[in-house]
Amino acid sequence: MIILLSAAIAPGLALFSYFYLRNQMATEPRKTLLQTFLYGAFLTFPILFLQYVLTEEGVFQYLYLQDVIFSSVVEEFFKWFVLLIAIYNHVEFDDPYDGILYGASVSLGFATVENILYLFSFGLDTAFMRALLPVSSHALFGVVMGYYYGRAKFSKLAKTNEMIAMALCAPVVLHILYNTILSFKGYWVYLMIPFMLFLWWFGLRKVKLAHYHLVQHLHMHKKI
């Protein structure tokens, strides 16, 4: 049990540590990050319950609508909503890179609990693939979401409402593409490899841009 639990938690911890350590200019309070992680973890249960109820009731006529569209939209919406309500106006969200950390944190909270439940159901043999695909993809969806929240709050050039909308729309589109590829039975792996390479490139580009905006933000405040 301890080995399974460790294998389920380790990927999320490693990915979050990577994004946390990329922030060389400031240190975000760990308590707030932990709270955000827990928000994401708690979200897992109502989302899974909602998915279960709709499946049992046969709400969706087509599996694609249920397994791809609905699951992608509902998971990203709840994470987006939590960040908007609990974090966006928080006093600790005080620079552009914070969005990256909070987005990754809430996503990895969700992904970690989901991973624990999955490994306890299907065993340790799935741990490597789970770390490589669902956990890392959730982290990167969160990074993209957090980047646009950072732009919404701190960019004087970007339109706030548009950036907040992008914080939801961009991860939803990426998540739908990810789930669509998984729905291609038999040859999904040939599509997933280039997609994951793109997703990592796209996510790390947002990290780099957020770090650039952080430098600009700190430079501007020094002038003031």
Automatic annotation (TrEMBL):
Extent of the signal sequence: none
Keyword Endoplasmic reticulum: no
Membrane topology of the entry: Multi-pass membrane protein
Transmembrane annotation, as ranges: 6-21, 33-54, 69-88, 100-121, 127-150, 162-181, 187-204
Protein family according to the UniProt entry: Belongs to the protease PrsW family.
Role description: Involved in the degradation of specific anti-sigma factors.
Name the UniProt record assigns to this protein: Protease PrsW
Organism: Lysinibacillus pakistanensis
